[in-house]
Automatic annotation (TrEMBL):
Record key words, sorted: ATP synthesis, Cell membrane, CF(0), Coiled coil, Hydrogen ion transport, Ion transport, Membrane, Signal, Transmembrane, Transmembrane helix, Transport
Similarity annotation: Belongs to the ATPase B chain family.
Major localization class: membrane
Name used for this protein in its record: ATP synthase subunit b
Superkingdom, taxonomy of origin: Bacteria
Function, as annotated: Component of the F(0) channel, it forms part of the peripheral stalk, linking F(1) to F(0). The b'-subunit is a diverged and duplicated form of b found in plants and photosynthetic bacteria. F(1)F(0) ATP synthase produces ATP from ADP in the presence of a proton or sodium gradient. F-type ATPases consist of two structural domains, F(1) containing the extramembraneous catalytic core and F(0) containing the membrane proton channel, linked together by a central stalk and a peripheral stalk. During catalysis, ATP synthesis in the catalytic domain of F(1) is coupled via a rotary mechanism of the central stalk subunits to proton translocation.
């Protein structure tokens, strides 16, 4: 309201100054052929006075009745704009805060997922190592059993081979010489030859 009132007052002052200037320059203007500026004429003076009164009344009506309403409207509009700006600023701060919380939650979720994945991988690695150890132990046991079985089969085969060798030697000697050799002597000689060959 203060700005509008000051503007109207400035306009009124400019009008008064203009009228005063016209009054000062009126004799010269009248002399050059402008009778509307002849202030010696009562009609011109009355028109100027009525114009000033009408302007003053118009100023009073504007300043007392219309300008306060316009000022209220401008003030309300300014308050509403300020309130809307505050609401928008608050909403932006809330949105920024929500975005920051969302980013932090995303980072936390990624870190938690990475930790969980690492934990699962470690557990799987430990389980695989344990399973591999069990498989190696089972294979070692099976290999040891197989070696024992092979050694036993080898011993049986050698024992049977010695018997076959003794029987074959006895049969050859009997066929070549016609004399039946002593079975124990043949067995001892075969055993001695077998032991000698094993040592070599």
């Amino acid at each position: 309201m203060g700005v509008i009132t000051k503007t109207v007052r400035a306009g009124l002052l400019a009008t008064v100054c203009g009228v005063s200037l016209l009054a000062v320059s009126a004799p010269g203007a009248y002399a050059t052929g402008m009778p509307q500026l002849d202030f010696a004429n009562p009609l011109v003076t009355g028109q100027v006075m009525w114009g000033a009164i009408i302007f003053f009344v118009f100023y009073l009506v504007l300043s007392k009745a219309m300008l306060p309403g316009v000022a209220r409207v401008l003030h309300d509009r300014s308050q509403r704009i300020t309130g809307d700006l505050e609401v928008a600023r608050s909403a932006k701060q809330d949105a920024d805060k929500a975005v920051a919380e969302l980013q932090q939650a995303r980072k936390d979720a990624m870190a938690e997922a990475q930790a969980h994945l690492q934990k699962v991988l470690d557990e799987e690695h430990r389980a695989a190592d344990q399973q591999m150890q069990e498989i190696n132990a089972r294979l070692a046991s099976e290999i040891a059993d197989a070696e024992k079985n092979v050694a036993a089969e080898k011993a049986r085969a050698l024992s049977a081979l010695k018997e076959i060798a003794a029987d074959t030697t006895q049969a050859l000697v009997q066929r070549l010489t016609g004399v039946v050799p002593d079975a124990q002597l043949v067995a001892r000689n075969v055993e001695s030859a077998s032991a000698h060959r094993s040592i070599i």
